Amino acid sequence: MAGIDGCKDGWVAVVAEDGDFGTATLCHRAKLFDLLSEIKVDLAVVDIPIGLSEGPSGRLVEHALRRQLPGRKSSVFNSPCRQATYEADYESASNTNRAVVGVGLSQQTWALVPKIVEADCVIRQFGQKRIKEGHPEMSFCAFWRRPARASKNSVKGTFERLNALVSLGFDLSMLSEGLASDAKVATDDLIDAAILCWSANRVVTSKHETTPDAPQEDPTGLTMSISA
Fold first, then answer.
1. What is the model's pTM?
2. CA–CA distance from 217 to each of 102, 225, 227 (Å)?
3. SS3 112
4. What are phi and psi of 98, to 5 degrees?
5. Contact (CB, 8 A) for 138 and 68
6. Where do the DSSP E strands lie in the chain?
7. Distance from C-alpha of 178 to C-alpha of 188, rounded to nearest angstrom
8. CA separation (Å) from 128 to 42, 133, 144, 158?
9. Which of 3, 26, 130, 154 is the most buried (most CB within 10 A)?
10. pLDDT tens sequence across 90-110
11. CA–CA separation, 53 vs 224, rounded Å?
């Protein structure tokens, strides 16, 4: 199984077999299709929206996440409607999103649109039996049975998450050695991919949690939910 997170120059995956996180490996590729084709896992959990609303309201996923992550709500971005992903610039996309689902887009969401479009295409090829949507903060919440106490961008938050991964058996120092010297993978990208790998193992062993309880389907038939 694998946890996958986006990074500045593509995608990074942490891959483990049968919950043996101590021997996990890392794969870093520019394209999600190439990454998934190479790792050939039974199941992957990826931190990217799967399934997009086409109106008249947005996805329920983000609303449900915010309820479960008090204090970490800022880590949850509203996904764009599908129509907004076709726009060429931020202003047009935000206006389209407001017209379709009633709210504009944040700059953070707009920055993710190329990866959202890429993943939307790839996941329709691979299918959701093999690929689930995840959210690292929800995965850490499932591990601790509470939200993280500090932002992942803080020193305290970084070590809070690292300590959790060490307790699960991950060796992030060893995993980082597999990166090329010019790879644009941040520390939090590797941390997020690792905890998503843990969630993937929970899905495989039917120990995972699904948010929201009653997921929607988008017009293309993709289920919109988080596995943690």
1. 0.96
2. 19, 9, 15
3. helix
4. -65, -40
5. yes
6. 2-7, 10-15, 25-29, 44-46, 131-133, 210-217, 223-227
7. 16
8. 11, 9, 27, 31
9. 3
10. 999 999 999 999 999 999 999
11. 9
